[in-house]
Design brief:
CATH architecture of the largest domain: 3-Layer(aba) Sandwich
Distance between the termini: 41 Å
Oligomer: single chain
CATH class of the largest domain: Alpha Beta
CATH topology of the largest domain: Aldehyde Dehydrogenase, Chain A, domain 1
Number of domains: 2
Helix content: 40-55%
């Protein structure tokens, strides 16, 4: 008989393994977290058993602006990194996802009320898109075209787009995000 959700794991050990605290910042620049000046905190409750998983601070306008400014500043450096080197960073993300697939899939399952197989499937989607993005980073070709002007050549060359925001579906909390983030 197929079980939709197998809860034979300890959520506290999963959170510890993934370095997720009891109370977490709402946003981060990668180096610095939000100020946590906000007193508003949201408890994250599992739909599986109604138990609290952890809490997260709300982000304010100033937190949001700091994160966007940091992302824009980081982009200036990121766009100068050659595509194969950016691909290497994404490859390392894929390795980390593979190493933590069990715990990440269990957390997705517990947090979203998905079956365990669906939770693992979401993490596998992230791994797969990392692999795709690494391959894309090695495809350094572009089109060249004749021009109407003499001694003139036209060509296309891909460059990173810049800072973008992603609004993802609640029921696919990591797969949809990764489709965008890893290819970016």
């Amino acid at each position: 008989m197929l079980k939709l959700l197998v809860m034979d794991f300890d959520i506290k050990s999963i959170l510890d393994h993934l370095s997720i605290s009891g109370t977490n910042p709402a946003c981060s620049t990668g180096k610095n977290s939000a100020s946590n000046d906000s007193t508003a905190i949201k408890d994250i409750i599992s739909p599986v058993d109604g138990q609290k998983i952890a809490s997260v601070h709300f982000a304010g306008k100033d937190d949001y602006n700091r994160v966007v400014e940091a992302a824009n500043a980081a982009f200036v450096q990121w766009r100068a990194v050659p595509a194969p080197k950016r691909g290497e960073i994404v490859r390392q993300i894929g390795i980390a996802l593979r190493q933590n697939k069990t715990e990440l899939g269990q957390l997705v399952s517990y947090e979203m009320g998905k079956s365990l197989q669906e939770g693992w499937g979401e993490v596998q989607e992230m791994i797969d898109v990392c692999d795709l993005a690494v391959g894309q980073s090695r495809q350094l070709f572009g089109f060249t075209m004749h021009s109407e002007r003499t001694e003139h050549r036209m060509y296309e060359q891909y460059h990173p787009l810049g800072t973008v925001g992603i609004i993802s579906a609640f029921n696919f909390p990591v797969a949809v995000w990764s489709w965008n983030a890893m290819l970016a």
